[in-house]
Amino acid sequence: MMAPLARRLSSAERIVCFSGAGLSAESGIPTFRDGAGDGLWSRFDPMELASPGGFQKDPELVASWYQWRRRQLLQARPNPAHEALAGSRVCCVTQNVDNLLERAGVPQDRIIHLHGRIDHDRCNGRCGHHQPMDTGLLETDVALQSCPRCGDHLRPAVVWFGESLPEAALMEADRLCRETEVLIVVGTSGVVWPAAGFIELASGSGAHVININPEPGPMDEHCDVNLRGSAARLLPRLLADSG
Ligand code: BJW
After folding, report:
1. What's the average model confidence in pLDDT over 49-66?
2. Whose CA is nearest to atom 7 of ligand 1?
């Protein structure tokens, strides 16, 4: 199975990887829909926390959830799947808000973050202030911060439900998925839109679509090949000879 796919990849000029939370699962970052296991946060609904309404209702609670996730990210290391992407010429369109692709060494101009980045903050008001997260605060109990420019709350620079995705990222992902010869889909449930639509877009534009996921999902029917297994095990093997 892998050899013909690897040959197809090595002859392709354009390859895009479209990833979701499963890419980082083996780095110890829980996937979005598997939740937070049986820990402190398991009784909260991530769909509620990752929403403007959730933040408006209880900004301290939402800020504390992100602080917990930021601490988790600081402890995490890129896994062999991130490293395989770093060692390849593949362009990465990711729904993930973590920075493990960057930390594995994928150049910034080959990464598109459709849902923003958890390691940055932005003003929840209208002043437009944006800053890298203050890692010093992760060692304290202070989770909720004020905007240094206008005094409103700061919030993570991620895309919550009901919010628009960044226009530039959407346009670039759209172009890449229309033009790519091969789309490698890694570790996404494919239930969140408009991001999930990029799989159909690439497929409809003639790309060969390879899906890596231990579980079946709604996007399987849009993929030419569904490889059942983990990202850290299968992606390095797939990309090994892709040039
Ligand atoms: C492994 C593995 C291993 C495990 N190896 N694999 C059209 C139809 C219906 C609804 C909508 C629609 N258009 C818009 C909507 C509304 C909404 C939406 O999609 N809702 C659905 C849930 C129904 N979309 C939005 O609101 C978006 N905004 C928008 O469209 O604005 C305009 C608009 C608004 C309202 C109406 C209409 C238009 C914004 C979406 C923002 C998503 N944000 C989040 C949170 C980011 C911040 C944070 O992290 O806190 O992004 S939600 C969450 O889901 C996160 C993820 O990026 C995203 C995708 O999840 P992902 O990555 O697929 O993770 P999981 O957990 O779902 O799946 C993990 C997978 O990995 C599984 O398949 C496992 O099997 C697999 N796996 N281990 C490989 N080792």
Report:
1. 97
2. 193
